[in-house]
Amino acid sequence: MNQRIEAVVFDIGRVLVQWDMRVLFRQLLGDEAEVEWVYRNVVTEAWHGQHDAGRPIAEMVAERSAEFPRYAPVIRAYAERFNDTIPGPVPGTSELVEQLHEIGVPLYAITNFGADTWTDFRPTFPLLDRFRDIVVSGVEKMVKPDPAIYALAARRFGRDPGTMLFIDDSLPNVISARECGWHAHHFTSADLLADDLRTRGLL
To answer: How far apart are CA 165 and CA 196, in angstroms?
Structure first.
């Protein structure tokens, strides 16, 4: 028999806030084809993943700038203006967080986010004050979908995985959470998440 869900655990990027590095690149580069090339080859999501895993951004910028000197200003701007890659909240999810908070559902988060960029971003998004604890991959030096980060989160939150619903836009992260004993929702829209929360009796 499934345990009753007592808490909800959110991912942040692309669940609570939008994230698109090209938003920044368009401010720096005039040609959309070049924006796309830089996104695919220079300042890529895979490269950024090193920061999520705990590597200092300054070290990454120096190394990448030496590799792509033409784009050194763009690489440096990525570190200095990371918040420009977050154009706003994902429509609808902030309202769901507020509804859950208002009825007393304990809220937590697990996010793949670099420690340096997290320091700059966190104060800009006061909705996160609703969360009792947030596990940040770059601080812990472990990233989703590694089972270790789910184990750490369960210890930190002081709850059995079977009593928590985890919400993430990444299917591999969702699958890993389920394999670790969590309930999980693969996020694609706030409307579908709201339907799932109601079905589970959380709203």
So the answer is: 11
